[in-house]
Amino acid sequence: MKPSVVLIEPKGEVNIGAIARVMKNFDINDLILVKPSVSISTEARRYAMHARDVLDNVKIVESLESTISNFDFLVGTTAITGGDHNLLRMPITPEQLIENIAEVSGNIAFLFGREADGLTNEELEYCDVVVNIPANPEYPSLNISHAAAIIFYFLFKATKDHEPTTFRASSKKEKDIIIDYWSSILELIDYYEKKRYIPLRILKAILGRAFISGREAHTLAGVLRKIERTLKFHKKSAIESTNFFPVYDDEK
After folding, report:
1. Residue 195, burial from CB neighbour count under 10 angstroms (0-12, 13-18, 19+)
2. Could you report the average pLDDT of every consecutive run of 10 residues in the chain (252 residues)?
């Protein structure tokens, strides 16, 4: 599957550049502009950042009809849903699209409409499926580049092999060290002895749910160790000061 992006009559260089950038983020390189109102200049390139190669290879056409024959599957996008009374605007979500995208063979194009009013019903007629991103019903229209980023992310996640970022999980021994320091601190601050098991249990549960890394465990243990030593020092100083009672002549 080779995805392409088609922008219908874009009017702003900012959005063209931003679209190019998110395309590059999610490994899509083929950008087609249908009858753009602006040329690609410094502003578009500035917003594209390191995706300038996408703009260098952009294709410009005069009509949607002149390019759709190159694609086997067209995905339209809309912020306006129509329900049963408008079959063209009965969309699916990005998740639903990606669940079935593996069944699509050949070239696929994602169509994005005009910044102000999106795709027309006539343009939606060409589409095999229409996608809508659920949003706040009081303000459902996303910026075109933001909508593109969401859809491209789901596509990338479903079709690309990528290794998740990994880290060394903390060991039981490292977590036990944290608990031991925590227990010592509770004792040093004279926390209620009969209720001391509660904060101990809570911290243990937090560490279990958090799946902290070895580095995080090491840092946390270091902080708790510093707190413990500080409390011990002040407690020792306090004890020594209370044990010092000078004897005056009139007390003899």
Report:
1. exposed
2. 91 94 95 94 93 95 92 87 55 85 81 89 88 88 92 87 70 92 95 92 88 91 96 84 58 44
Domain range list for the chain: 2-159, 172-242
As a whole number of angstroms, the longest Cα–Cα distance in the chain is 112
Return the amino acid letter for 97. Answer: L
Give SS3 for 13: helix
Q: How far is CA 62 from the centre of its chain?
A: 36
Q: What is the 3-state secondary structure (H, E, C) of 33-93?
A: EECCCCCCCHHHHHHHHHHHHHHHCCEEECCCHHHHCCCCEEEEECCCCCHHHCHHHCCEC
Torsion, Cα of 141, 144, 11, 107 (10° steps): -130
Assigned architecture for domain 2-159: 3-Layer(aba) Sandwich (3.40)
